[in-house]
Amino acid sequence: MRRRTKSAAHAALHVLFGSRLNLLLPCGPAALLAARLGIGDEISFLLALAALCPLAERIGYATEQAALHTSSQAGALLNATFGNATELIVSLCAIREGLLRVVQLSLLGSVLSNLLLVLGCAFFFGGVRHATQRYDQKSAEAHAAVLVLGAVTMVVPDVLGEGETKSSRHEDTESDVLSLSRWVSVVLLFSYASLIAFELGISPAPPEISPPLSPSPEEEEVEEEEEEELSFRQSTVALALLCAATAGLSEVVVGSIQGAAAGAKVPLAFVSTILLPIVGNAAEHASAALDAVALAARNKPDLAIGVAVGSATQITLLGFPASVLAAWAYGEPLSLDMLPFETACLVLTILGVATVLPSGRSNWLKGLTLISLYVVIALAFLFHDSSETRAPAAAKHKRLG
């Protein structure tokens, strides 16, 4: 049952105090003050990172409220788009500062966390309640195919860079890789637009299953949760303000990330690939965990798969290419050419998940395997030293040459 939306004052109070995570909101002004006073990069970075958690959660909440006033397809698109808002805002701020490696690694980390951590938790918690769960095999195969396409397409500039480095055209390698990355980005954006068109207009509705005469307690609980706390106008205003606050804190994060990593004696690659995406996906991870618990009771893991894999697909087809083209507009040479270890993590993760998804079945062991793989990759990034932060291609060829 949906109830009438609240007044503007009540809506604002609900946005500000509707989550326990909002207790961390004062860390935002504290981070801005610490950055202005030059107290220390470590303190500024940690405070800004803490404040991003409730902002990401509130962006997810406002998006869900806006989605209640749209169709199911448009709502799903809204959730997928703003679910990655934090990562995209951080990427734009990093591009403005010329920290191109931070852009690459944070987007890479978002794909890894969604496909391994979020999806792994969904499989694990769902499998704890049910020995084996079944989901829509055709939908999973479609997700897997799009992911593999994105991964293979993104690897092409990396392969070109490796081959050209060993050839007589070494001096033109960076220019070739950069040009190819920009053209590939256009193709990926076209693929993403085609995917949106397919989901919004072309794909047929899933077959309906006759509901029971009386809804189950779980279904009643889900219906109660889908209440219109905010109107569509209130939701869009809240999204605009939350994204603006996120942009301000992202400036602090980007400006202090190098100093914080150096002060903590932690590789910048670990901070960019592991810490930033987990905070940026805080709302999505929490949502996926709740979905997993609900799906464990209802034995329907399709929604959790859509949240995790859909977000990873969007980062691959939209996040990476949009960042490359935005950097081009800023005059920064951001390409899709990453270091071999990073490319291997991306490709192997996508291929591994693409192998698991089409089976149509999940269990707790598959979930634990995905989580374990994420832990292994996170530990590997602790030993992955990628000190160059401004020119990925040049740094790569220098390190390998």
From TrEMBL:
GO terms for molecular function: calcium:proton antiporter activity. It is found in: Endomembrane system. The chain crosses the membrane at residues 107-128, 303-326, 338-357, 364-383. It is a multi-pass membrane protein. Residues 208-229 are annotated as: Disordered. It holds the Pfam family Na_Ca_ex. The keyword S-adenosyl-L-methionine does not apply. The keyword Transmembrane applies. NCBIfam families: cax. This is Sodium/calcium exchanger membrane region domain-containing protein. The lineage of its organism: Eukaryota, Haptista, Haptophyta, Prymnesiophyceae, Isochrysidales.
